């Protein structure tokens, strides 16, 4: 039976951990989320329902989850990393069997009281599993071919299931985030070169297997004007909204593209466009600056951590968060093809919000236990 006393409270009291908790970081997340609440309030034409109030409640619940997760000893998270990954994998697999469709993709599970998107949970679980695995290897062991089979399977299996939903954006995020942990663990450059060559060679095969709408997204990215009322409509309206906002915007709740319903999915994927239309270049730059502060702090936590598990976990969370922000903001600007990647803490979505706050709780646990030394090697887990 698992003795929790081995992992909690032995080295630090709860009161000490609460003192170590970076409340300023939580405040920063609250400020970013508040910008999302304001936009969701505006989307609903000055009403807290159906989006803003629910998102506020989710953030409060997420903040509670973040604090609880942060107070748990980092060694416990390392020990249960594989079971958490297994649970996430079962949920992702269940989507293909009993999941229901929304916006053309089968990505959600209906659990009665809540609707769950397991791929969002997998984004965190895959980082935990890889961080634990690579913690158990020395630098020389990381690049041995036999030691790469398990971490590759950790990535490939859920990516294959997510692609089948289909959710190409999330699949790319899972792959890139996992690849970064391979790099951070010290994998030799020759494997990345071989991987790059393999990706280039696989492009014709992947292209042939893409859905028609996915190919259209690529064509639209290259030339949005080819179908302005069809496939190119979303990105063209997004660019119009971005440009019409100017330097200071049209004013809160005064965005014409959004409120006249020219802008699609303005509460989720295109919420950054709405923000820029109403608050202008200054508003958009402010949000990106706040995101930059989150990233700077996250990377600093990774650099301060004295154990490999915490260092890799913090780095994985930081990189995953960066790609969330980068892909969504670049997508609505027309710099990347349109994919279903929400803007973290701002876009409407329950599972995305709660899983991200859980991830930030893990990041804070790494920070609180940054001076904890955990022995390397396979026996370190036990």
TrEMBL record:
Coiled-coil portions: none
Top EC class for this record: transferase
Lipid bilayer topology: Multi-pass membrane protein
Transmembrane segments: 21-44, 56-74, 81-100, 145-162, 168-184, 279-300, 312-339, 345-368
EC number assigned by the record: 2.4.99.28
GO CC annotation: cell division site; plasma membrane
Location in the cell: Cell inner membrane; Membrane
Chief location of this protein within or outside the cell: membrane
Keywords noted in UniProt: Cell inner membrane, Cell membrane, Cell shape, Cell wall biogenesis/degradation, Glycosyltransferase, Membrane, Peptidoglycan synthesis, Transferase, Transmembrane, Transmembrane helix
Entries under InterPro entries matching the protein: Cell_cycle_FtsW-rel_CS, FtsW/RodA, RodA/MrdB
A GO term for molecular function: peptidoglycan glycosyltransferase activity
GO biological process: cell division; cell wall organization; peptidoglycan biosynthetic process; regulation of cell shape
Signal sequence interval, chain numbering: none
Catalytic activity: [GlcNAc-(1->4)-Mur2Ac(oyl-L-Ala-gamma-D-Glu-L-Lys-D-Ala-D-Ala)](n)-di-trans,octa-cis-undecaprenyl diphosphate + beta-D-GlcNAc-(1->4)-Mur2Ac(oyl-L-Ala-gamma-D-Glu-L-Lys-D-Ala-D-Ala)-di-trans,octa-cis-undecaprenyl diphosphate = [GlcNAc-(1->4)-Mur2Ac(oyl-L-Ala-gamma-D-Glu-L-Lys-D-Ala-D-Ala)](n+1)-di-trans,octa-cis-undecaprenyl diphosphate + di-trans,octa-cis-undecaprenyl diphosphate + H(+)
Keyword Transcription annotated: no
Pathway: Cell wall biogenesis; peptidoglycan biosynthesis
Origin: domain of life: Bacteria
NCBIfam families named in the record: rodA_shape
Family membership: Belongs to the SEDS family. MrdB/RodA subfamily.
Protein role: Peptidoglycan polymerase that is essential for cell wall elongation.
Name under which the protein is recorded: Peptidoglycan glycosyltransferase MrdB
